[in-house]
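User: Reviewer 2 asked us to show a designed sequence for the structure in our supplementary figure. I'm pasting the structure tokens here. Could you produce the per-position amino acids so we can include them in the response letter?
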């Protein structure tokens, strides 16, 4: 498969050397940024999340369980920082 870029308008793969797609989309920085802005606005519009109580509980329990290893990692980082700073303190005074 050759290298190409995906047209954000029609999802067709266009060769990297081409500056515009057959659908009429022009691969310029300005048009790509403008399209990203449009997507951002669309994402902002979708704000209301419909979630049942049961699935919310499952989601929150999963989140809490996932946070345990994250806290362990943060604790280890803190321990390393404490030991290093302590060693610096001992050698300095
Ligand atoms: Zn296109």
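Assistant: Here is a per-position design you can include in the supplement:
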């Amino acid at each position: 498969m050759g290298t190409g870029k995906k047209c954000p308008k029609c999802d067709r793969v266009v060769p990297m050397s081409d500056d515009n797609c057959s659908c009429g989309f022009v691969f310029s920085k300005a048009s790509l940024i403008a399209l990203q802005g449009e997507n951002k606005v669309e994402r902002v519009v979708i704000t209301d999340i419909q979630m049942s109580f049961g699935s919310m509980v499952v989601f929150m329990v999963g989140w809490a369980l996932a946070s345990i290893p994250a806290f362990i990692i943060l604790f280890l980082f803190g321990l390393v920082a404490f030991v290093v700073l302590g060693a610096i303190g001992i050698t300095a005074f």
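For the response letter, you might also mention the following. The pocket of zinc ion is lined by residues 7, 9-10, 12, 21, 23, 25 (CB under 6 Å). The first helix runs from residue 29 to 45.
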